[in-house]
Structure formats: C-alpha cells, structure tokens
Amino acid sequence: MYELIKRDGRAKRGRFHTVHGVIETPVFMNVGTIAAIKGAVSTADLEEIGTQVELSNTYHLHVRPGDQVVKKLGGLHKFMAWDKPILTDSGGFQVFSLAGLRKIKEEGVYFNSHIDGRKIFMGPEESMQIQSNLASTIAMAFDECPSSVAERKYMQASVERTTRWLARCKEEMARLNSLDDTINKHQMLFGINQGGVYEDIRIEHAQQIAEMDLDGYAVGGLAVGETHEEMYRILDAVVPCLPVAKPTYLMGVGTPANILEAVDRGVDFFDCVYPSRNGRHGHVYTKHGKLNLFNAKFELDERPIEEGCQCPACRRYSRAYIRHLLKAKEMLGMRLCVLHNLYYYNHLMEDIRGAIEEGRYAQFKKETLAKMEEKED
C-alpha cells in the first residue's frame, strides 16, 4: 500500500508498505544484478549506508544459479541475507539488450543465453514464475523494451503487445500468489509504460495500464539514447497520466541531476548502475560534482572524498590513500569508492524527502544543482 504523505508541486513524498518493510519515497534502489552489489559490497554494508531497497535481475539469476536453486534455498532474501525489500526486474530489458539472436512472438521471446548459448524461452508467465521463485518483494511485468528511436509503426505494435503481456502477468501473479508452496504470497506487481519518444503512444499506454489497478507503475525505455531534454518532456507528459496514489518508478535513471529533475515531475523510485560502476573506476560523487581519484592532484590530498560525509570511506580514509589503492589495483580502493557513491545516493534521497516534507523542494533542487556545477577548491 502506498501512502502519499506530502506533495510539493508535483514532487511526492510517500511511504510504501510491503511485506518486507516500509519504503520511504522518493527512493534510490541499489543495484545488485546477480544478488550482489559489484565492488565487494555485502548486505551488512548496505544496511550501514542506509539502503532501503536492493534490486536484482530476473534474467541473470534465472541463467545462474537458476531460480529453482534460489527457491530451494528459501528465496532471494534468505539466499543473500537481506531482510528489507527487493525489487526484481522482469528480464525483458536484458533479453532485448544482451540477446543478439532473438525472436519476438505473441507468446514471448526465444533467445540464447549470453553465458552458454543454450536456448531459452521467456514470456509473461515464465517471467512471473521466475520472480515468484526468487520471492522478491516487487516483481516487474515482462515487457518489450524497444529502442527509444524505433519507428512509429513498430513502437505502436510493440506497446500493444506489452499491454497484452501485462494482463497475462497480472493473471499469472495472482495464480502464483495463491499456491501453497509460494514463498512470498504477497508479491507485488509493477507495470511498465513504454512508447519511446512518442508522447501520444506513451500517454495512451499510461491511461490503459493505469486502469489495471497494479501496485505501482514504471516508466521504461528512457535513458537509452535520447537526450535528457527528451526524457524530461516524456515524463512531463506521462507521469500525470499515472495514478498519483501509486508509486511511479523511472527505470535505469540516473545521474543525481536526472533524479532531482524526475522527482520534480512526480517520480518516486529510481535505480541505476552509475554509482557502483563509476565507483569501480575511481569516479566518486560529491555535492560539488564528480571527482576522478586517479588524477595526480589527489596524490598528496589528505582530505576525505567529501568533508563531513559519514560513509565508511570518508570517516577513515584520505583521497591520497584511496588513489594509491586504485592505482595499485587493490580491490579495497574500488570497494571504498562504491560504498561512498551508494551512501551519497541514499542520503541525497534522504535530503530530497526532507525538502519535500518542508515544502522547499524547488529551492532545494535549484541550490543542489547549482552546487554540482561548481568545482571544488
């Protein structure tokens, strides 16, 4: 159940009640594709840095170790020793991005595993079954994620098929949640809005799926090649067509600036690989933008990554030391950068929630974006 606590313009401050605990929104979900955050980050670390939701990938876990294996081990929460909410994406995006050879049919998609080449079929029912075996808190509907610049005729047909697939997902999830051997009988389902950069297709699709009374709604197929301005234009058009009394999730986005802009347009949920991927390459986020710790100017810099930051890296280590670790290819350097970045994102969301509650989000956004444009001394 989603509880809307405060609106400040279009920005929403909410509370999403789940079987695995309450999610305070807006929220950034920390991406652990194969049930682990890349960069040697444990679930104990996630608790320490203020993570509310962990996100894992249906396709990857189906391929390895296998969703049946995870089910036999008690589900994803038990498997990875994490008792807070988990969202699993449907596998649709990976099927379309990783599988070079694939056939899309009404029943689903035929493709080859990117690991061992074996033939796999995945449709709405299979995606729901895999996610039920994983026993995540929130399951995503199986959709096609076409290129955002696909031609109009293809996009229209694709979105219509995604709508039919969503109805099948909803029906299958209801069936699975009623079975005796289902681990999480309260699994929630989010539908996904598609339509590329075609506003009218997006709006019509949003209106159709809004009528299906799902637990939440995602906007998919953005941040895949279109400009930021196009993305914001689509959000301006689509978010008002989705139920305000349900969470809205912008998939795979993004930079701190993207998040600030999307919150302003009514988005509640975010996920992105940026903080962990950039951290593994020595790029760290601060209130004054991003730093590359490989730069020679940090060789003798005794300051933490960010003054005043309470993350495990900043409480103890200097930029100079972390730079040394990175240059020496020592895994600890990568780990400290990832921990800092995830802490930064989690606590940016905390600040966003506070600003909305206090009715000063517009000013907060303006000041935060201006600081990011500054360069530190």
Number of domains: 2
CATH class call of the largest domain: Alpha Beta
Strand order of the largest sheet: 4-5-6-10-11-12-13-14
Q: Given the structure, what is the number of helices?
A: 14
Mean pLDDT: 95
Task: Give a written overview of the molecule.
The chain has 14 helices and 16 strands. The protein has two domains: 2-272, Alpha-Beta Barrel (TIM Barrel); 279-367, no CATH class. The mean pLDDT is 95. Strands 4-5-6-10-11-12-13-14 form an eight-stranded parallel beta barrel, surrounded by four helices. The longest helix has 27 residues, at 331-357. Strand 1 and strand 2 (11-18) form a beta hairpin. The chain is α/β, with parallel strands linked by helices and 377 residues long. The N and C termini lie far apart (46 Å). Helix 7 runs parallel beside helix 8, helix 11 packs antiparallel against helix 13 and helix 12 packs across helix 13.
